[in-house]
Amino acid sequence: MRALFLLTWLLMASLADAQSLREAFQPFFRVGAAVPSTEGLPEDETALLTRHFVSVTPENLMKPEALQPREGTFRFEAADAFLDRAKQLGLEVHGHTLVWHAQCPEWFFRDGASPASRELVLERMRKHITTVAGRYRGRIARWDVVNEAISDGPEFLRPSKWFEATGEDFLVEAFKSAHAADPQARLFYNDYQIESGAKRGKTLRLLRLLSDRGAPVHGVGIQGHWSIDEVPFDDIERAIIAFHAEGLRVAVTELDIDVVPRRVAGADISVRDRATEDPYAKGCPDEVLQRQAEQYARLFTLFRKHADKLDLVTFWGLHDGRSWLNGWPRQRTNYPLLWDRELKPKPALDAVLRAALE
Ligand code: G3I
Asked: 60 C-alpha to center of ligand 1: Å?
């Protein structure tokens, strides 16, 4: 009788009141969120974070620009505080990111008035990685060692300053240095739109190159910045299978579903949209939120199907008010996550929870 009552109640009540993401997906994979900080987070957001998530990613404060703004001047206060508080809260930390072309200070690539030599750039990169990953040795579950090195254009690798100075070597050396500094951390290559088209093939090429050259790479992060009605479900499935077939673990590291139309695809922060429309400034139509919920549910059903290959699914932000998609590729009022700006569950949260129980 009691069981029947409980079942009826469960079916009728919003699942979000009864279930947490971390419990619901515990048999399948870890669920995480990116946040700007853990120690500076308001109490209600901290409660949401610990109730629903197992893993936390620092959205910005472990990027090279934040940690070593000038050569030899390391700023560890914010990252230390992030890790201490995460530990206190019982959250594991996904490190983001050791090597990236963006948010990386110019000094890495300069030698006085000239461009720095290949050796100098590699030496600086190794020192950065050794210092950062070494300081946090044993405390970071996974590192996004290299972020977004694959080109969106016709060439294989992005023509970044790292590539210009060192060719493919920075990739190999980054993984070797990270592994030497923290042998326990699982090391990931992380990028956007690598599930589809030419970038999927280039990713496989990159993974083979790393493996041929003895680089210790353990996983691939599919960022997962997708747009409503354009989520490439079939490509995502093919990519998870293909990356796993290379002997690697897969993570979805930066999940969100953008609901406001834009002309720019992907997640290249240097690309801006010149439009000014903000169609949902006064609120998002319910019909759009329902469609978003259905698409989130379909995604999590797919992730569940491939749970044996997936380590982690992390949302890029905790709630709609905290998403980078409010500011990129133009100022917009966006609704890409599972909670609204008042921290109320959206239809997408229920839909995702249901996908765990089906
Ligand atoms: O902290 C400064 C603040 O002092 C200053 O007043 C303000 C003025 O613009 O800028 C603040 O820094 C901003 C920072 O976010 C913190 O809010 C930067 O301008 C802004 O560029 C930065 O954007 C971040 C972006 O990466 C670039 O680092 C986003 O928050 C962050 O969500 C985004 O995350 C990236 C991943 O690392 C890699 N994959 C794509 C993803 C989305 O772009």
From this structure: 6
